[in-house]
């Protein structure tokens, strides 16, 4: 669909622990960045990286979806002018394994996202070829 | 015609399926006049021309006059911007996910 990054990771853990890794501020600090995250729709938070000469290190986010029943979490992710949406889904795989699916889309406005939805998948493969030329 | 200072965001430019199709068509040829592009679409030359203008504003297309016709050419460089954020965040999350794995496995051992 749209311009996006998609990644899947499998872990030997429980779905409850995986969900807490995504939603608990202290857990997030251990594997992403220091933050004031709360899993409440509408909550505005920041991830704080080390500032450098190009960037103040601040990632601004707002919680968009918290669906604990279907283990879906979505928030906006803004660095300067660039606005992304990060969406996580946790899936039980059985035998003590869970799958964490990450989707990060890179459009700041909905019309652009809708416009890009059609035909992106095929096109994206072409992009690498074009850049290689 | 410079692509150093594009007046339009490359993400806007590629958000439309017609413009992505145009980029694809242009990537298959060296240089092409407008009428050879318009035959590929169910829209008039004015509409196609407007899309080309947007691509020009994003620095993705350059044009030049050859006799009576204008020929268009792809400049793929701004597309690197798109690939860059994807690869940047791929690396960012891969590193973090590895850290998460250690975190979750540590907890398992406790």
From TrEMBL, chain A:
Superkingdom assignment: Bacteria
Pfam family, one: AHSA1
Ranges of residues in domain Activator of Hsp90 ATPase homologue 1/2-like C-terminal: 13-131
Record-linked SUPFAM superfamilies: Bet v1-like
InterPro entries for this protein: ASHA1/2-like_C, START-like_dom_sf
Family named by the database record: Belongs to the AHA1 family.
Protein name as annotated: Uncharacterized conserved protein YndB, AHSA1/START domain
Organism whose genome encodes this protein: Paenibacillus catalpae
Automatic annotation (TrEMBL), chain B:
Alphabetical list of CDD domains matching this protein: HTH_ARSR
Pfam annotation, one family: HTH_5
Domain HTH arsR-type: 1-94
InterPro entries, per database record: ArsR-like_HTH (IPR011991), HTH_ArsR_DNA-bd_dom (IPR001845), WH-like_DNA-bd_sf (IPR036388), WH_DNA-bd_sf (IPR036390)
GO molecular function, a single term: DNA binding
UniProt cross-references to Gene3D superfamilies, sorted A to Z: Winged helix-like DNA-binding domain superfamily/Winged helix DNA-binding domain (1.10.10.10)
Keywords: DNA-binding
UniProt-listed PROSITE patterns: HTH_ARSR_2
Top-level division of the source organism's lineage: Bacteria
PANTHER family, alphabetized: TRANSCRIPTIONAL REGULATORY PROTEIN
Protein name, entry field: DNA-binding transcriptional regulator, ArsR family
Organism: Paenibacillus catalpae
